[in-house]
Amino acid sequence: MLTKLGEKLTDFFQKNMPNAFVFALILTIITGIIAIIWVDVTPLEVVRSWYGGFWNLLEFGMQMVLLVITGYSIALSPLIKNGIDHLTRFIKTPKQVYFFSVFIGIALSMVSWGWIVIAAVLARELALRVKGVNYPFLIACVYFSNGSWVTGLSSSIPLLLNTENNYMIEAGFLTDTIPTSYTLGSYLNIGMIILFLVVSPLIMLLLVPKKGKELGDMLGLKDDNKEQTIKEEANHLKLPFKAVSDALNNSIVLQIAIAVLGLAYIVDHFNTNGLDLNLNIMIFIFLIIGLILHKTPIRYTISMKRASSNVSGILFQFPFYAGIMGIMTYTGLGEQLAQVMASFATIDTFPFFAFVLGGVVNFAIPSGGGEFAVIGPSVIEALHNIAPGLSTQEMMELNSRAALSIAYGESLTNLLQPFYLLLVLPVMGAGINIQARDVMGYLVIPFILYFIIQSIMVVWMPI
After folding, report:
1. Which residue has the higher pLDDT, 14 or 371?
2. Domain ranges in the chain?
3. What is the DSSP string of 138-154?
């Protein structure tokens, strides 16, 4: 029954869901119209707000591009490919591929949401080796697994609240930091981790479609038409005679020397800052690992060229999502949404409404930290008005529950919009014709189930 429903939803999305870029354009217009009608701003103010936010994700967009291509480049190395070959001795059926991809994706995403790139690479390689894998469904499995990031070490809202002198404290909405023991270490968050690790793989196994396109068929691969290896391409580029340029291009010593410098900085970074897994250090780690695994500059160059062949979606679509974020932020629309929610919420229903608000605003601001910067102050202020006279600890618990509710809602609605799919598709969609509409239909049922379960959890589970 669930399988048939999932297939019908997939057919619906294939027929009706536009390209991810078109989705961003439509969302821009809708957000602008709502701002004009609701917040009473002029069309010119909307346009100015749109342009004001247009460039706010440039750094983030470049980080996404580097995260994708450095992670993918690692997977193209002989060592990783050999490791995946050994792994397929134990993973031999499509269901095992789906289960393993979801579970590994969840575990990696809890370390950092950017590590979903590694899961995407692994899933793609398994799909090439195991017959019968429905590849669009496998992409959905990997994308679904990335939702666990909100419970892990890179969960932006809890980390922000535990930062000294953060903007919530400076603006007077909080009097002190909120330790991660109240957020990431809470019973509520531990319950969410168990939900992801145990329930998520089982849900996807219940939704496995009976048939679908295999990656090998989509690529048009045949046994007699294998792609040239990176080492073979590097050798092909050599001149027919000895040359200094070839010696430099293929110098192991030169590349390893740079890698040693990088490793020295990585050790120093963690020794100085503790377990600080920000995007920049993650990308740097991927970069240095790639240098080591590919051994020579020319091989690494070839691997990066192959890895970067499918990142155009990130490059030109991120500014449009940033523009939507600008409309929400600079017109005051995001703050207005938070105030409306607070006007009819009670101390018992507040977590649920914060959960829903986080999910709704995520369509316009697909960034946990960015979203909380817009609606967080209004939500926390409203909570203080709803629940006056509580002790410091009780207030901290309520603030923690509200912040986690926003974070969970924000993460959940990623299943209904293709923004972060742009992180997975460049890897898993390389060399094939596949779009968000081919994937998103498989995620509707997981969204509905998780919406019900997480709604109950944010309201009733203790902190």
Report:
1. 371
2. 2-216+230-460
3. HHHHHHHHGGGGGGSTT
